[in-house]
Design goal:
five-stranded parallel β-sheet, globular, Rossmann fold, 600 residues, 22 strands, 19% strand, alpha/beta, 24 helices
């Protein structure tokens, strides 16, 4: 830009503060010159019609031109459509927290924060080279196992989705494979794909997919047989290429240890609040499907998240680097007296949560190399919070639903020397969850899962050999007591008014999500207050902190979370409260090789 250009730009910039400058005529708009086919050929001077060349672009995006003949200036402002597009692009790239993500997903998936967060991040990680993880939604019928992944996958491009109602061991390879004539193999490209199995696939297919789920090799070779009408059995070679994000939906908990360690085990929430919100959403959808569909398509939050996912995919990011690996390693070991072989799969999944959160905010993360970004400290903290919500059940190889039955039903019934019958468990289950528990499901699915996790053992009743009793194997320090069950809410009216209508008085009825969560390691002083807590409404955080100060001290992080759950908080609320207390009221110190937290 020459001196005259600088002078003209300065005069334009100062025109707003110089009244005399405003009286001078402003430059005209550059005129468009078209070729014989109607395409834009260039721009010409509005004064003399001579060719012009671009001088500079100002902060507003307006292009300024200078005539090569008369020296006059002309401009071409940025179109309003372009300005609007750039504003939307900037908005789509702004930082986002996990809480805000869950609020957007809540348009169709109510509550279920840990489950939908993990599922969404797993689908987002499908674009990476090898950081995908696998998920299994395991729960009883009608809880929404397949609904959650089907709703979340709507935010992702169609070409990435592969949804199966079922598949035999060989049809899976034939349907999606491409025949390589030169090498005479079937190539199945699964890289950067999202696979959703709406029901548990054939057990032989699950066995074949194990090396894929554990990321043993990027190219896996299989030999399968194919039966033809006249030629008989023919052997074919199949190559699986790349790593997909895989989601399984099943009502039956798997007993195979090889599957348990390869999957995140998740369960939809079944609290009364969740069911109410889900029913209201169903009412809106079923009463007017077309209006509901239009509402979803026009919802600004959903459109914003779809645009963001598209931009993340277009960014070309394939790898995420995590700094401070030693600090993360020590933090994972904190509170673990011993390690298990499955930690070699649990720990990498925690690291992939960190990478998923970094990818969600990739526009605001440091770019290490082309296609590679670096996770921030915020990503690490958020990942540990999310991991703590699902770690207790997953590290035992149990779905959250099965673990919740153990904590809320079996543990309160147990004592040191007294076995529990299946009928007692079924009665307690109905008192807590307001629905019956089928004997077949309890006998064939729930109890074997708990037994394989080492939480219970089953033995014949010494007094009646035909009856099987259940004994918890984890040492209990809860003093034996009768746990008074909450009265179920009214089926027709609000449960808050049940006492007034039925003569119960002012006693508050608890819903399942607010029930006591007894743990296998609790103090006797806390157990003495369980019955009182069981009848109270959800306590205020200040009351919880006061009771914690009065009754507990010098505990590990997991032990603090267990005490908070005992006092009426959910696992998520307990994690949030503990984060607030750290560094302000609770301070850590080393005690016999353990990190314990004590009151200041």
């Amino acid at each position: 830009m020459d001196s005259s250009d600088n002078h003209y730009k300065t005069s334009l910039d100062t025109a707003g503060s110089n009244p005399a400058a405003l009286e001078q005529p402003l430059p005209g708009l550059a005129e468009v010159e078209y070729d014989e086919f109607g395409f834009i050929k260039g721009y010409v001077c509005p004064s003399c019609g001579s060719p012009i060349k671009e001088a500079y672009v100002d902060d507003a995006g307006t292009r300024w031109f200078k005539c090569t003949h008369c020296g006059s200036y002309s401009s071409k402002p940025k179109p309003m459509e372009r300005l609007q597009f750039e504003r939307e692009l900037t908005e789509a790239k702004r930082p986002i927290t996990l809480k805000e993500l869950n609020e957007v997903l809540a348009t169709t998936v109510k509550r279920d924060e840990p489950a939908k967060s993990l599922a969404f991040l797993g689908m987002l990680l499908a674009q990476t080279e090898e950081d995908q993880y696998n998920i299994a939604f395991q729960a009883e019928s009608s809880t929404g196992k397949s609904y959650i992944p089907l709703e979340l996958v709507e935010y992702f491009p169609e070409e990435e989705k592969r949804i199966y109602g079922g598949a035999s061991p060989t049809s899976f390879f034939h349907e999606v494979g491409v025949w390589d004539k030169e090498r005479r193999v079937i190539r199945v490209d699964l890289a950067h794909k999202i696979l959703i199995f709406l029901d548990q696939p054939h057990w032989m297919l699950m066995e074949k997919l194990r090396p894929l789920l554990s990321h043993d090799r990027k190219i896996l070779t299989y030999k399968i047989t194919d039966k033809r009408e006249k030629a008989g059995l023919r052997t074919k070679t199949v190559e699986l290429i790349g790593y997909p994000s895989v989601v399984f939906c099943t009502a039956k908990p798997t007993q195979e240890e090889q599957e348990k360690t390869r999957l995140w085990l998740l369960s939809p929430e079944t609290s009364q609040e969740k069911l109410r919100e889900s029913l209201w959403l169903i009412a809106k959808k079923e009463c007017n499907r077309e209006a509901f569909r239009q509402w979803l398509e026009q919802d600004p939050k959903r459109r914003w998240l779809k645009r963001r996912v598209g931009l993340i995919r277009a960014s070309g990011i394939r790898n995420v680097v995590i700094p401070n690996e030693e600090q993360i390693f020590k933090r994972y070991l904190n509170g673990r007296s011993s390690l298990k072989p499955r930690d070699q799969r649990d720990f990498p999944r925690l690291l992939r949560i960190i990478k998923g959160l970094a990818l969600l905010n990739c526009f605001h993360r440091k770019e290490v190399n082309p296609g590679t970004i670096e996770a921030s400290r915020e990503d690490i903290e958020e990942a540990f919070k999310l991991y703590r919500m699902i770690a207790p059940s997953n590290e035992l190889g149990l779905s959250p639903e099965t673990y919740e039955i153990y904590v809320k039903v079996i543990v309160p019934l147990a004592s040191e020397n007294h076995g529990i019958s299946r009928k007692e468990i079924q009665k307690r289950y109905y008192d807590v969850f307001y629905r019956p528990l089928q004997d077949d499901r309890l006998r064939r699915q729930i109890l074997p899962s708990l037994e394989s996790a080492g939480l219970i053992r089953q033995e014949p009743n010494p007094e009646n050999k035909r009856e099987i009793l259940i004994y918890p194997t984890v040492p209990l320090t809860i003093s034996p007591m009768k746990m008074e069950a909450p009265e179920p809410p009214s089926r027709l009216g609000d449960h808050e008014n049940r006492g007034e209508n039925s003569g119960v008085g002012q006693e508050t009825i608890h819903e399942p999500s607010k029930d006591i969560e007894c743990t296998d390691v609790v103090s006797i002083s806390a157990a003495q207050s369980l019955s009182a807590t069981h009848k109270m409404e959800k306590p205020a955080l200040a009351d919880v902190v006061s009771r914690l100060r009065a009754e507990f001290n010098h505990l590990t992080e997991e032990e603090w979370l267990q005490r908070m759950v005992m006092l009426g908080l959910t696992r998520e609320e307990a994690c949030s409260l503990f984060e607030k207390l750290k560094g302000e009221a609770l301070f850590w110190h080393d005690e016999d090789g353990r990190t314990v937290w004590s009151w200041a």
